[in-house]
Structures are given as C-alpha cells and as structure tokens.
Structure of Kynureninase:
Amino acid sequence: MTDTDSPRAESTSTVEDARDRDESDPLAGYRDHFAVPEGERYMDGNSLGLAPDTALATLERVVDEWRDLAIRGWEAADPDWFHYGEHLGDLLAPLVGADPDEVVVANSTTVNIHTLIGTFLDTLPGTPAGPDPSADPPAVLVNDLDFPTDHYAIRAQLRQRGLDPDEQLVAVESRDGRTIDEADVEAVLRERDDVGIVFMPSVLYRSGQLLDVDRITAAAHDHGALAGFDCAHSVGAVDHALGDAGGDDEGADFAVWCSYKYLNGGPGATAGLYVHERHHGTTPALAGWWGNDKATQFEMRHTYDHAGTAGAWQIGTVPMLSSAPIEGAVELIREAGIERVREKSLALTDYLIELVDERLGDDFSVGTPREHARRGGHVAIEHPEGFRVSEALRDRDVVVDFRPPNVVRVCPAPLYTRFEDVYRVVETIEGIVDADAHREYDPRDGGVT
Ligand SMILES: *Cc1c(COP(=O)(O)O)cnc(C)c1O
C-alpha cells in the first residue's frame, strides 16, 4: 500500500510538516511532565512508559508518609494506604469503562491471570470445585499469538484442577502470523461446545492489532462462555468500555492489565484487574487477607470473608512503593482525557505508517492493521533484517524493540512523543538502510529489549 504518488506524500515528507502537526497538537504540553531522555527518540512506551513528574511526586509523598507516619500511614496517610488498591481502582475505572467497584490495583498481571482464570474455572461444570464435577471438562480459548505468560498461567491453572492443558487449552490459529480474525474465534465457539472461558488480548503485543472486545464478548456469551481480556497493551492508550461490552451491553466478565506500559506507573508497578459486578461474591481462587472485606479484615478471623467488590481479588498487602506512582501517572491521563489520548495515538501511528510507506523501501512492511478500529498504540515494522535494524537504531539513540522473527516495534506513546520524533525515527531507519549500516551488526537474537 505505498502511495508515493499521492499529493499527500510530498507534504508528509518534510520535517516542517511534522512540526506543524506538533504545533496544532492539543496534548503537546504533556511532554513537559515526562523524563524524556536527552537526545533520544524513545519509542518503547508499550514496554516501559517514561516517568511522569506527577508519578514521581506521588511516590515521593508515600516515601515521606512512610518516614513520618510509619505504621500510622495505613490509616493516617492521605489517601490512606489501607484502601489504596481500591482508591487506584476508582481512578482507573473510567479508563476501562467500568464502575469503581469493578476495578482494583493488585498483584502482577501474571498473578491476576492465575487468580481470575482459576476463579472462573471453579465456577464451571467439569472442574473439581464446579457445579457438576463429573461433566466434561471445560476448555479455555486463547490464540496463537498471545504473550507467553498468559498461556503458562492458564496451563498451570488447568493442571491444578486435574485437567490436561494439552487438551483443554485451545488456541485460535492466526491466518497470517500477525493477526487474529474474530470470525475464527466465533468459528471455534461454534465448532466446540466445551469452551467455558474465552481469554483474549485487547491488543496483540507483536503486531499491535486491536481485537474487537465487544464482538468477542458477545460471541462468548452467545455460546455460554465467559469473556476475559488481557489489556496490558491497551490500557492508557486505548479507551475501553469493558462494562458495556457484548450484546445487550452485559459487559465483559473480567480483565487484567499492567501499569508499567502506557500507564507509566514504573517498572514492575502493581497491576490492575476488572471483575464485572455480577461476579462479585464469587470466591477468589487465590485467597489472601487483603481480599477480605475491609470492615472485618483486622478482626483476624481464620475464615476468609471476601470483599463484595473486585477488591476481593487482592491477595497480600498492597505494595505501596510499586503502587504510589500509578496515582500521579493516572491523574495525567485522566486530565488529558483517554479519548483525546487515543485520538493522538492514532494520529501518530497514522503518520508513522504513512512515512514508512513513502520513505522506506519494499523490504519494509507494516504488520499492524491500518484500520483505526483494529490498531492499538504501536506499529510493527517488518524487515527481514529487523534485528540488525533495531540494533543500529539503538546506537543512533532511537529506542525501539525487536520481536522475533522480523518485527521492529515502534511505539509513539501519545503523552510524550512528538510528530517530529516519528519523522526522525523514519529518517534514521532510511539512513541506516541506505548506508547498509545495519549489516555491521551481528544477525543474532538478543536479550531483553
Ligand atoms: C506485558 C504483558 C504481560 C506482563 O505480565 P507481568 O506479570 O507484568 O510480567 C502480560 N501479558 C501481556 C499481554 C503483556 O503485554
């Protein structure tokens, strides 16, 4: 889909045009809140968001509270530490389109997958704790292109219930190695009547495809299955309506996400989860005192009285120092407005895709869907020497990451990336391949990027 002959082409290909776009960007001022590394084009906000000053401020406040209040901080801090996971859940709820009671900040994403998949397996026939243990066992429907940890956690939860993961974990196949067609999710649901849980990502971590949460929820519910989502690659960049998803707006059943990507909560920041209110009261698979009803938690009874909200899926003490930055970081996104953040994200990725089409040769292609409704916050630029290109970019102060086999992920995170940065990134790639500079790098695969 190159369109170098279009009239648009000339106007997009100048740095002046990029600067014009920045001048008319209503969110341009937000960049000043972020610790943008001097001289760098940081295009990795889908892996680790940059630090906002507002997040550092709430972290510092909690450090001060710890120093000044010590144990009293659980009640005397403002907001108090005791209800802090719930408090952050209230702040996050509008970003995912849920009610405050349906969202809490707790645990890690992987742990939240464990507890929520486990919780809902226990409600299904064919599991030991389910309503009819002797029924045929339920299947969990995932996909071929999922982030690995999701499958590890689900397989473990199946195994712990005596179910064979090789039989009960079913993956929808990708037709093109990049995307998942929602029609194929629907087809599996029609073919097999044993699917108890559909668990899909909102955005695929490699190609950046945004899946149709609404359609998948409706399909799952039509076939008597629950619909859960891993929104790690979308919360903070894409607006969601989890509480209204599916036919008749009945809402997705549950979701998880992490706070260190587009939410800018810091490395390993405490994760978030959503459980629709119709499931409040269901017994969490991984019980712990922090999920107890807050009113009776400190009576220290030996029987667990779980909270009647999503707060029940907390496990242990809220990790205050890994949670505090989320407060300030989310404040910024709420102030900018998630719809406007999404709008700018699409404008940036539109621009990036246009430039790739216009400026880079035929060896490059865009693996991310071009339709807005199917695109998350990053763009997968494919090149047979993608690894070497990404290494060469890093040496030229462009921070991207590489995902095998051939994908350079470029994420112009909307709150701190300028159109000029996008322009410079494509210009840098062009310079690298024109000079064959990437061939100076080892073609080997690397470590964590
Ligand atoms: C980043 C990411 C995770 C990370 O899980 P952690 O428990 O935070 O390590 C999980 N799933 C998806 C889809 C992700 O993108």
